[in-house]
Structure formats: C-alpha cells, structure tokens
Write a structure and sequence with these properties.
Number of strands: 4
Structural class: alpha+beta
Distance between the termini: 19 Å
Largest sheet: 4 strands, antiparallel
Helix content: 40-55%
Organism: Gossypium arboreum
Shape: globular
Oligomer: single chain
Protein name: MULE transposase domain-containing protein
Radius of gyration: 21 Å
Length: 198
Amino acid sequence: MSDKQKRLVEAICMLFPNAETRHCIRHMHANFKKVGFRTKKLKDLLWKAARASTTREFEDAMDELRKTNQHAYDWLKEKNPTHWSRSHSSIRSHFDMLVNNLSESFNKMILEARGKPILTMIETIMTKIMLLIVKKKEEADKWKGMLCPKIKKNVDINIKDSLRCVPSHAGRDKYQVEYGLCSQYVVDLVENSCSYRN
C-alpha cells in the first residue's frame, strides 16, 4: 500500500510483479480535496465507495457520487478501483486495510534511525522492535481469554450479526446464505470465500 508515490509503486511492481498494489484512501482523499472536492458529503461518498465490499455496493456509491457531483465522479472514475476499493480487490491477499497507518507508524518509530549508518540504523530499529515486542507481550499477559480485546469485540459483533444469517446447503461445500430480506450470498467452504467479500 502506498500514498501514490509513482516511483515507489513502479519499483514494487518491478520487484514483485504478482503483488497487489493499493492506494491509501486518506492520501487519495487529500488529493481529492486538492482538486476542489472538499465537502463532507463528497468525502463520505468517497469512503463509502472505498469500503464497499461488493461491486453492487460500489456502483451504488458511485452512482450517488455522480448525482451529487459529476466532476468528482469523473475524477474518481479515472482511478482504477482495484487499487482503492475493497469491492474490486482480490480476496487472495486477505488484506482489507484502506489506509497505510501501519507504515506511517513504523516510519515515525524509526525516524531517528533513518539518518544513521546502515549497521547502526539496523541495530537501532532491531532494539526498538525488540522493546515493542516485550511491551506488547506484557500487555497481552493481562488479557482474559485467547483473543486480544479488539479482536474479541469484532468476533462478538460477527457472532451477533450471524444470527440474522440463514444458511441453505447448495451442494458439496457451498451454501447460500440469506442475510435480511433481499440479500443472498454464496459461501464456499473449500475456496474459503463468500460472495459478500466481507
């Protein structure tokens, strides 16, 4: 995931030709604002399209954007959705992050080391990572249960949401799952996939 630095993306694509590239939506939104699309409504529609897990949800968000501001729609339509929307990304990577906060945090952590000679830089980064691992281990020792609190909360929400799902066996390892009144999705237990993509 990049902040759309063209040379960085080109270098990654050359080194890893099969790697998926994604763009940070926070940086994309900054560019969106630079060209004049500054309203909260347009920001919300950009994020709605980015968060969409199905192509139908994506198209609905884009259609709403087109009705709100044709120029903003045209600007966004020029961007390849495989780089910025969950609905068009491959499920092969099992990666659904829309922002590069993790890289930004890591870069901030190693800021003091970046100007040092290579061996000193590596030792400084190694020490910082080691101390971080120890700190996280101490925090994890305080948890109750096997999952960290944030993941436990997400699992509990998914369990609660799953009560509204009605599965029907569709043959072999596939199930049709009805969610609500008008939503039906295919779950394949062998492929480990769901047509809802979420």
